[in-house]
Write a structure and sequence with these properties.
With about 280 residues, the protein is α/β, with parallel strands linked by helices. It has a single domain, classed as Rossmann fold (3-Layer(aba) Sandwich). Helices cover about 40% and strands about 20% of the residues. It has 10 helices and 8 strands. Strands 1-2-4-3-5-6-7-8 form an 8-stranded mixed β-sheet, sandwiched between helices. Helix 1 packs across helix 10. It is globular. The chain starts with a helix and ends with a helix.
Length: about 280
């Protein structure tokens, strides 16, 4: 099950910009713009096999909360098994808040009994069944709306909450942005194949450590992207842990031809260990 989980996010997470394979327009500071530009890349689309519909008995429930733009948003929520002010915000990949991400959230809840899990819906109820639909949803999403949803979730958990973030591909980039928006409430941030923030001034505002899961054969989140992130975090004086795997994009997705069970399992172990340590501080 762990493998299935990771995959859900991991592969879809092809969120990022590579200085070698993505045009300069994709390097815009807006994470949404960068992600959306990749949607028109045929190779990017082909790297994402359509998700298999998943039916299971969900442990959590859907909730709604108000957002600063005067609207409402929804999320998949699992209360901590042990009463706690620890919250993990989960960010879906470009498919949307589907069964895979809910299952990943269930697994995170099992691994982190003292953490409340809230998987936000950046597509406002829409879910893609194939890469063409995912491309349209990703390109239709806006940075302003996504930030409003994240700020709404932060408001929902409350000013006393300790917050960590995790996301894959499209959601990996938003895990980074969510961490920045969390301010001094931040406990930690995990990015799977997501677009790192490139503005050193913004990185200086991070209030916790970051774990970056990286596949060294990834065409989009390549070595240049990883190296730049390492240097930018160093310049910002922030702690970054990079876990490198001898694998390709989507290596943790069992339904992907490039699935690597060993790497996927290890990435999951590193993710849960990092989050446990982050909330223990």
């Amino acid at each position: 099950m762990k493998q299935l989980v990771l995959t859900c996010g991991l592969f879809f997470l092809v969120t990022l910009v590579s200085a070698q394979s993505v045009p300069s327009c994709c390097k815009a500071p807006s994470a949404t713009a960068a992600f959306a530009s990749l949607g028109s890349d045929v190779n990017f689309q082909n790297a994402h096999a359509s998700p298999v519909p998943m039916e299971y008995a969900a442990i959590g429930n859907m909730i709604t909360f108000k957002t600063p733009d005067g609207k409402t948003s929804s999320a998949y929520f699992l209360p901590a098994k042990q009463k706690s002010n620890n919250y993990l915000i989960v960010f879906h990949e470009w498919w949307g808040l589907n069964g895979y991400i809910k299952k990943v959230s269930d697994m995170l809840s099992d691994s982190l009994p003292n953490v409340n899990i809230i998987a936000v819906d950046l597509y406002d109820g829409k879910v893609a069944a194939n890469s063409d639909e995912a491309k349209n949803l990703m390109q239709a999403s806006t940075a302003d709306r996504s930030k409003a949803i994240i700020n709404g979730a932060i408001g929902f958990v409350g000013k006393d909450a300790r917050i960590a973030t995790v996301g894959w591909c499209f959601g990996g980039g938003w895990s980074m942005q969510g961490a920045l928006l969390a301010g001094n409430q931040l406990a930690g941030c995990v990015i799977y194949y997501g677009m790192p923030e490139t503005d050193v001034a913004r990185l200086k505002t991070l209030n916790a450590d970051v774990l970056f899961i990286w596949a060294n054969k990834d065409e989009w989140i390549n070595e240049k992207v990883m190296d730049d992130f390492v240097q930018n975090m160093k310049a910002a004086g922030k702690n970054l842990t990079v876990k490198e795997y001898p694998a390709d994009h989507a290596f943790a997705n069992p339904s992907n031809p490039k699935y690597d069970k060993g790497s996927g399992d290890d990435a999951w172990k590193n993710t849960t260990a990092f989050l446990k340590k982050s909330f223990a501080k």
